[in-house]
Amino acid sequence: MLLRKLLTLVPTVLLVSFLTYVLVDLLPGDAATLLAGNDPRQETIDAIREELNLNDPLPVRYVKWLGDVATGDFGRSFRTNQPVLEAIGERLPITLQIGLMALLFAIILSIPLGVISAYRANTAIDKTITTVSFGLLAIPNFVMALVLLYVFAVRFRIFPAVGWTRITEDLGENIKRSILPALSLSIGQLAVYTRLLRTDMIATLQEDFVSMAKAKGLPTWRILFTHALRPSSFSLLTIVGLQVGGLIGGAVIVEQFFALPGIGRMLFEAISQRDLVLVQGVVLFIGLTTVLANFAVDLVYSVLDPRIRRGSTRAA
Amino acid sequence: MARPVQPDLDPSSDAPNDGSAPDQLAAPAGVAVAEQGISAGASGGAAIQLPAPPRKKWRIFYYLAIAWLALIVFAAVFADVLPLRDPNFQVVRDRLAAPGEKGYILGTDDLGRDLLSRLAYGARVSLIISITAVLIGSIFGGALGLTAGFFRGWYERIVMSFVDVLLAFPALVLLLALVAFVGQSLRTISLVIGFLAIPSYSRVARATTLAVSQREYVMAARALGAKSSRILFKELLPNVALPVVAFGLVALGLVIVAEGGLAFLGLSVEFPTATWGSLIAQGKRSIRSAPHLALIPSLVMLLTVLSLNYVGDTLRSRFDVRESAL
Lengths: 316, 326
Prior knowledge:
heterodimer, A: mainly alpha, MetI-like fold, 2 domains, about 75% helix, about 0% strand, globular, disordered C terminus, B: mainly alpha, 10 helices, disordered N terminus
């Protein structure tokens, strides 16, 4: 079962890698000419072309590149000559920390909101939550970042405006500097999760086992959070999986906004410096992460819902 | 950008509808059925999960949203005719005027340019980019989705696997890469955003096509011996087009936000053209001394996106095939 699922991953991964390669490769601007920089002599350019295998036809180059990537060699940055994987490894923890914190904020807040909203469906509190989450959805993350920056860093000086401190240097300072970026990233997700959970939960609350639990005299909070929450969380999980990509996309802007040296900022810098190898490596890394995240969500489904594990889609 | 969402499972769609048991936990039966209708429609066909706006009693917001959008379109179209100052003219001695000061309704920026006029001309850029992008995305994406849903088989599999893979990349990352390399003119930005939106529209169009194909009138047409082309254009297209248009309205907002993101990275339309995104990005520089410079354009962008979401979502639920009874 697991093996069969893993096999379906192979064509997707190949297609992602091929698209990454072709996309970056076909873009205008000759890498060798760019690299030669101040030394625009033809010999230099030719030498660089030779070194980067740029003279081979595209499929040959792709296969060579894929072989290297498969053995963990993502190449070296044009500019700094640092191995791409090493560069990703250096920057990733920052993006990961912000992303996970954002996810955590969104989930921690959306679960009670969604559950209350479903439990009190169509009352004033439900309508307030629904309306507010609809409004939150229209806020772009940079606008959120701007408002947070203005309120918490300019007006009330609770958090520093920009910059980063590594977690290993000073934990308190690290957390202080990560809260605003994480909040800016989490706001849109919060709205999506709340609404999704509400919809699924309303359906779950009509199932027989909920009436059963109610008849047994279980307290309401137990029915809501231990009985009904789990079967209501599938759509939520799917979205969380899909959001991994969105989080990295949002990270590019938020990291730039708050001057955080994460992977999003590195990608942006690599693009503006035409550092093709680095761009390729980072885009591939992001694409693969997203694909794997969705795959992981698929697996978590079967843990959450025994009916899928058994192979039937729905028990009668 | 759009992140289509299609949960593999929809636990709500076939839950029992007879919530008639006197169960305090469950919502009243009628409400619950309506809720399920919304959820089934949203998770099956819609490309993004927007909380459905509250309906009926809230009609006033619908008209307010339309009025706001009309105002923005009016400002964008007639920016040249309206009594506005030149958006790029710098009056050094009026720099950083507060709203209402020295005859500037919304104040001036750090170079002494009129914010109101820059907003109006910025609306023009946002409008051009978003309408072009949505047209490209909906026409090409809609055609791909429609044909994939109609012809099925290997063609559908190829189209949809490309769609899935393209959607595996964070749209902003692709957008960034393409715009940085291709260039920052109004035309290239519109084209690139439109191109990147194609997969989302394909999903919406395909999901709707699959649902519409099951309808009696399509089967009747087929039984009467209608040609594929006739079924495609006369039976399916009109019904698939409406949800795609409704999605397009919501997508207009997404494109406006995407432009803002690009502006923050210095990749939107070149200096000195005013765009909403670049106004916000430039306003950030003087957020300490003149916060209105960033906050007013933010508010304008926010209200516009909110209005588009609201109108688009209201229309979408009206057009949704699954929600109207067979």
